[in-house]
Amino acid sequence: MAACTSFVKLNASSSSWIGQQSFNQRACAFPSRSRVSIVKASSSGSYTDELVKTAKSIASPGRGILAIDESNATCGKRLASIGLDNTEVNRQAYRQLLLTTPGLGDYISGAILFEETLYQSTTDGKKFVDCLRDESIVPGIKVDKGLSPLPGSNNESWCQGLDGLASRSAEYYKQGARFAKWRTVVSIPCGPSALAVKEAAWGLARYAAISQDNGLVPIVEPEILLDGDHPIERTLEVAEQVWAEVFYYLAENNVVFEGILLKPSMVTPGAEHKEKASPETIAKYTLTMLRRRVPPAVPGIMFLSGGQSEVEATLNLNAMNQSPNPWHVSFSYARALQNSVLKTWQGRPENAEAAQMALLVRAKANSLAQLGKYSAEGESEEAKKGMFVKGYTY
């Protein structure tokens, strides 16, 4: 028997799907004696309760995520900015400084690690994952394999890493990781093309299902790049389109929404747009997009900073927490937490304590922003400097 209906998307920015013919029409009516039941599969297996608990732990009041999952190449660029060579010893020293900061768990609930870091220890032999657990910080792991050109697109990219992901995720879980991150990107100046959006959404959904099946809470991150001179209204349009597609495929892959976290871009004008938006405007557009697209079952929205200055990222987060939201609205920052730390440290052991204090200052500022209680009074000029890099790669 031929299928009764095929499914067609209503429009580019809608998450609604309808059949071309009604199931009530005679041609498609099922016989009354043979009722059809649809059995929903689950991607998370026996881990569902643990996934929900982990996600709630990360999405706890006044806390957010420290992202230190830069690839070795990108970490090398950070080290080069303070005159250090890109060696494993130097990468380990820098990450030890971050992960052994006393009191970090007061403001940080999760830390995203690069694979090298997940398996490293301090110079005293203590595993980094144990350093995090002692501060009640959940260890996480970057699992994607980076971006590659997408054939047939408008000079856009797709994210690699699904091959072997299940076995790698199982090993990461054994090592102590309890959540995962997969970053793909969407470029507004390049379209975005329907192909690129669909590829991003499908890849994120497959990754999320595989992660949950292996006990890892997936962070879903389709980063809409700041590159471009478009207005904030265009960013909103694209963000709604992307997140509609993402949640459609998450549902198709039977991902448990209560066991995921999101890492969206804030809805801002393009970095080269002639007019900057205020934190209040960014909050208005961003929350509008989230309310239209994100189910309240999702426990946490952990924003990326995307090249904003340390202060900008914190002010924008604070503006979004001036009234209650259906989800925990917080941060998952890399550069916006680390920039001051690096410049304070300079690779010198005698500066380690001051650098850790700089990390606590930024972490506390964003903790206050998550609670809607942050003020930029007293912030340094250095913290106000933007960090946008055109075509930035991790």
Overview of this structure, please?
It holds the Pfam family Glycolytic. Belongs to the class I fructose-bisphosphate aldolase family. Pathway: Carbohydrate degradation; glycolysis; D-glyceraldehyde 3-phosphate and glycerone phosphate from D-glucose: step 4/4. Its EC number is 4.1.2.13. This is Fructose-bisphosphate aldolase. This protein has 394 residues and is of the alpha/beta class. The chain has one domain (42-384): TIM Barrel (Alpha-Beta Barrel), CATH 3.20.20.70. Helices cover 38% and strands 14% of the residues. The protein contains twelve helices and twelve strands. The strands form three sheets. An eight-stranded parallel beta barrel has the order 3-4-5-8-9-10-11-12, surrounded by seven helices. The protein has a two-stranded antiparallel sheet with strand order 1-2. A two-stranded antiparallel ribbon has the order 6-7. β10, α9 (279-293) and β11 (300-303) form a beta-alpha-beta unit. α9 crosses α10 (310-320), α10 packs antiparallel against α11 and α10 packs parallel to α12 (352-370). The protein starts with 6 loop residues before the first strand and ends in a 24-residue tail after the last helix. The model is unreliable at 1-36 (pLDDT under 50).
Please give the number of β-strands. 12
CATH architectural group: Alpha-Beta Barrel
CATH topology (level 3) name: TIM Barrel
**In angstroms, what is the radius of gyration?**
22 Å
Task: Name the CATH superfamily assignment.
Answer: Aldolase class I
Total helical elements: 12
Overall pLDDT metric: 88
Instruction: Name the poorly predicted regions.
Output: 1-36
Calculate the terminal CA-CA distance, rounded to whole Å.
50 Å
| Overall geometry | globular
User: Helix coverage percent of residues?
Assistant: 25-40%
The CATH class name reads: Alpha Beta
Content of β-strand: 5-15%
Class based on secondary structure composition and strand pairing: alpha/beta
Trace the largest sheet across and list its strands: 3-4-5-8-9-10-11-12
The largest pleated sheet is described as: 8 strands, parallel, barrel
Provide the domain count: 1
Secondary-structure element order, as H and E?
Answer: EEHEHHEHHEEEHEHEHEHEHEHH
EC number: 4.1.2.13
Catalytic activity: beta-D-fructose 1,6-bisphosphate = D-glyceraldehyde 3-phosphate + dihydroxyacetone phosphate
Keywords: Glycolysis, Lyase, Schiff base
InterPro entries: Aldolase_I_AS, Aldolase_TIM, FBA_I
